Amino acid sequence: MKKSILSNLFLCTALLMASSFSTTSPAVHSRTGTELTAAQRKFAVDYYNESKARLLKDLKGLSAAQLTWKADPSRWSIAECTEHIALAESLIFGWVQMTLKQPATPEKKSEVKLTTDQLIAMTIDRSHKVQAPEQLKPSGKFPTTQDVINAFVGRRDSTIAYIQTTQDDLTNHFIPHPVFGTLDTYQGLVLLAAHSVRHTEQIEEVMATPGFPKN
Predict the structure, then answer these.
(1) Measured torsion, CA atoms of residues 147, 14, 184, 95, in degrees rounded to the nearest 10
(2) For 127, which DSSP code?
(3) Which of 41, 43, 133, 195 could bond to 8 as cystine, CB 3.0-4.6 Å?
């Protein structure tokens, strides 16, 4: 079930972003060994920390009126965006862990066509709007927005600790993606952080919309 949910999440995002993807973009973060390089580990940890700090800074001190305000009924509020981030945070990490339980398939390494930078750019590009799968749409699953934030921080900190210390073979386990093609599980982890950045930018768009409450 988790794999199906997350495949839908990535597919929804990818289908509307694929037209902006260029295979000529330079490869910056390459993967050649069976363990993460020091540069890969640092990049992922830094990206996780920076994206976490950005979200928490945006949410700090917001009133109930600001958290629940909508420009129109078809748009998500800041509270709803935050719930979506928290739900996806756990599910995507779980999908990566499930993939790592399968045998390594290093022969698939040549099938990886996207760089980490391309995945990030495509994911955070908000010029392409997408619909979240039903299972990841916010529906008040947490009692309060603070509970949502606590869930996000707990999962995010746990994932950061995992990336800092893991010896798992993240570069020889692969996720078959219907549009992105083959992704290794390191890319899956970076894509998780990029997903939170995408919706943090959505939160910032809400805050910049005329009519957003001043307090």
Answers:
(1) 40
(2) T
(3) 133
Structure tokens at 68: 């629940």
Q: Nearest to residue 16, comparing CAs of 123, 134, 175, 121? A: 123
pLDDT, tens digit (0-9, with 9 covering 90-100), for 55-98 = 999 999 999 999 999 999 999 999 999 999 999 999 889 989 99
d(CA 104, CA 65): 49
d(CA 1, CA 141): 19
Structure tokens at 80: 């709803």
- Structural domains of the chain sorted by starting position, each given as residue range(s) with its CATH number in brackets: 2-19+38-207 (1.20.120.450)
At 177, phi and psi to the nearest 5?
A: -105, 135
* 128-165 residue pLDDT tens: 777 777 878 899 999 999 999 999 999 999 999 999 99
Dump the DSSP string for 43-101: HHHHHHHHHHHHHHHHHTT--HHHHH--SSTTS--HHHHHHHHHHHHHHHHHHHHHHHT
